[in-house]
Amino acid sequence: MSEPNATAAVEADDSTVPAYSWYALGVLVLIYVLNFVDRQILSILANDIKADLEVDDAFLGFLYGTAFAIFYALFGIPLGKLADSWHRVRLMSIGLALWSLMTAVSGFAKNAGVLTGARIGVGIGEATAGPSAYSLISDWFPARLRATALAIYSSGLYIGGGVSLLIGGLIVEGWNDAFPVGSRPFGLAGWQAAFIAVGLPGLLLAAWVLTLREPARGAIDGIPTPPHPAPFREFFDELVQIIPPFTLVGALRRGPAALALNLLAAAGFAVAAVLLTRWVYAGPGKIIPAVSDQWLFLGVGYYAVFSWASGQRARDLPTYRLTWGSPAFLATILGYGTVSFVSYAASFFAAPYGEVAFAIPKTQLGWLVGAPAAVAGLLGVILGGRIADWLFVRNPAGRLYVVVFGLLSPVPAIWITFTTTSETVFYVTAALSQFFAASALGAAAATSQSLVLPRMRGVATATFFLATTLVGLALGPFLAGWVSASNGGNISLGVRSTLWAVPVGLACLIVAIRLVPAAATGMLARAGAAGESTISPA
């Protein structure tokens, strides 16, 4: 351990956080709010889209989850690499402009295919936000406040998700009242106007983001990291490693054995996709051809991740050892992935369920489901982050106990939400489930960041989001929607069917609790990063 750098890290950790760091964090929260307004507004628009485009709950789960998640996850990896080597503020601004534009384009969709393409564009743009923001926050805030800062940033998820229901409901009902069928400008329905209205403001916010100052990478931890001489070369190298069929070229560069293993993996994922498609869609009365690409998308996504992880081992062994090669890291992100699996399904289908089960108008759903969910999520994620930091000071694995709480505590609330016959109880338990699930995010994110070195934080964030997207977002909403569509539109059964994942997540978190302390203190030894200075676990 290098003494000067260790001393600098301690001094930075004990110093007062500059006011600018809090200001910059506020801007990042606004970005994340818009991120989830653009993403979650699909929930309040779901029943209108079903009617206009003649699709079902399975397609909506596919659209909200898989179509978005695959491209969000895959592009998050090379963009995470770019966040580790280029100007993070510029990268986030470009991504914000792209996803805002594609959200507006969603408003002009006249069929399911165009809407799917637009949501793919939203996913690619939003993939810039997480790696850039997590890395920036880790350079603006010392280790002792990192879970709190990440929790405050993450509050944008719940504010945006909740506010989206209110905004969407007001726009749809206002537009449809003002412009009845036959007199609509450009033939746009209310749900289309809502997409346009929430997408365009992001272009203005992107210009504001450009004014943020880029912090010195790693300085706050006593490990100053110089700018990378060729950031875009690394970005394109990473892009080629994960986008099929170029993945075969990347495998061939590593030798015939690597190519053979890659081809074997591609064949395995292809067979799995075919078998799952036949199993899911061949049952009597359960053929849903509109989303027959679900398992194809997932197969391509998982194969691409396999190719990338294999290539990373050859290209950047230290990063591989601290992420894919670390049981502690994998157990942490998979444990939180199951929180996402359940909570994404419940939060997405809450509004459509309330509209069908209780005949609640959209505007009322916005006020009584969306607004309380925003407040509950905000309080949950910030309180969870503060408790996680308090526990971390006393126990190196303390943050993970908050993740366990965030996994288990929503289960009764979700069950009651989707079974109660009382509209009032529905509102209360929907908010409670959001509060409980939100508590886990800051703790899980900070734990994953504590297991890697500063130069790896963008890639580690992208890998963390692989679990929240390819495990949580890509599977939870779709499976809930498929079970619903397969049982006559029974949304209640669909959402409750996702709770089987809870014991799996609990097992992962128990493993993480046992492994994280040793993994956090032995980073340099396991990475083989001789010559780099160690820091206190973040």
Description:
- The chain is an all-alpha fold.
- Helices cover about 80% and strands about 0% of the residues.
- It contains 24 helices and no strands.
- The chain has helices at about 5-15, 20-55, 55-85, 90-105, 110-125, 130-140, 145-180, 190-200, 200-210, 230-240, 245-255, 255-280, 295-315, 315-320, 325-355, 360-395, 400-410, 410-415, 425-450, 455-475, 475-485, 490-495, 500-520, 525.
- Helix 3 (about 55-85) packs antiparallel against helix 10 (about 230-240), helix 15 (about 325-355) runs parallel beside helix 21 (about 475-485) and helix 17 (about 400-410) packs antiparallel against helix 19 (about 425-450).
- The longest helix has about 35 residues, at about 20-55.
- Mean pLDDT is about 85; it is low at about 1-10, about 280-290 and about 530-538.
How does the SSE layout of this entry go?
Blueprint: H1 3-14, H2 19-53, H3 57-83, H4 88-106, H5 112-126, H6 129-140, H7 146-178, H8 190-199, H9 201-209, H10 231-242, H11 246-253, H12 256-281, H13 294-315, H14 317-322, H15 327-357, H16 362-394, H17 398-408, H18 410-417, H19 423-450, H20 457-473, H21 476-486, H22 491-496, H23 501-521, H24 523-527
Helix pairs in contact: 2-4, 2-6, 2-7, 2-8, 2-15, 3-5, 3-6, 3-10, 3-13, 3-20, 3-21, 4-5, 4-6, 4-8, 4-9, 6-7, 6-20, 7-8, 7-16, 7-19, 11-12, 11-13, 12-13, 15-16, 15-17, 15-19, 15-20, 15-21, 15-23, 16-17, 16-19, 17-19, 17-23, 18-19
